[in-house]
Amino acid sequence: MTNLEELVREINRFEAIISEWDESQRCVAVGLKRAIEALHKAALTNLIKSLKQESMSALRHAVNDEVVYAVLLYHELVKPPKPPLAQRIQTALEEVRPGLKSHNGDVELVAIKPPDTVEVRLIGTCSNCLASTLTLSQGVEQAIKNHCPEITRVVAVNNNHTVNTANSGLISPFSAQITSTWIKVATIDEVPEFSVLAVQIAGSSLILNRQGITVKCYRNACTHLGSPLEKGKIENGILTCPSHGFQYKLETGECLTAPDVSLQSYPVKIKDDKVFVKLQQL
Q: What CATH class has 85-156?
């Protein structure tokens, strides 16, 4: 019996020949091919309906044949096989990694617990960030469930990893080497009322907004996955993160999407027409 590989090679050989014909000849060949395929698909569809009514076991037995399965798959009459669960979970984690890494964080798979539970570990700054629970539910958990509908629980396990804050813009308040310094960041005229001014100062990315004569300063990072906020839409004093839609009140830094987390704020003072922000430095 001719096997599937031989049949595919024969089809490929004829397709290569047709590809060298002129356009009018190719159109005739392609039209004939489509008409034959439509006829075959209609016949196969009717055959499957009949087999379903008569004998599901016979239908399953037929689909187990690799040639039958390949033809049904080509006509989209059967679903392609799903990759293994572990592979689909890793695909989901790869989707969210860029966002986590932009916030100096990451995620790793700890365990798969059949039938419906996956354990993961948030690492880096995500492991003890105030928004880590939100990161899990909004990002990691949703990605896993999208790829693996059979998973209904995604659990973040505790860990003893030391959080590496190097170059992250986050400084531990318990460090004995920390000093606070007032740093000029802008003039008051440079700070807009209906948008934000982004500045890079002393290794920190900040956004400033003015309400009348009051200037507010926040860390330029969404509390969700750390995305920059300076290109976000502002309407009625509410800033919307351009990446995932989290919303913040510029007057207070309060997150309207997840009230338990707020933007990191910095003290501001104005002297003459200059705006100073109090920053921690090592």
A: alpha beta
Return residue ranges of the chain for CATH 2.102.10.10: 179-281
For the beta carbon of residue 235, count every other beta carbon within 10 angstroms: 9
Tokens standing for 231?
A: 């290109």
Residues forming CATH 3.30.300.130 domain(s) in the chain: 85-156
CATH architecture of the domain with range 179-281: 3-layer Sandwich (2.102)
- Model pLDDT for residues 6-34, shown as the tens digit of each residue: 888 888 899 889 888 998 888 998 899 89
Q: Where are the alpha helices (DSSP H) in the chain?
A: 4-19, 23-54, 56-63, 66-74, 85-101, 132-135, 141-147
Place of tokens 């830094």: 253
Q: Taking the alpha carbons of 18, 19, 21, 23 in that order, is the dihedral positive or negative?
A: positive
β-pair type (268-271, 274-281): antiparallel
Digit-coded pLDDT (tens) for 166-212:
333 443 332 444 467 899 999 999 999 889 999 988 778 899 999 88
Burial class (CB in 10 A: 0-12, 13-18, 19+), 212: exposed
How does strand 265-266 pair with strand 214-219? antiparallel
Contact 126, 107 (CB under 8 A): yes
- Beta-carbon contacts of residue 182 (< 8 Å; ≥ 6 apart): 269, 276, 277, 278
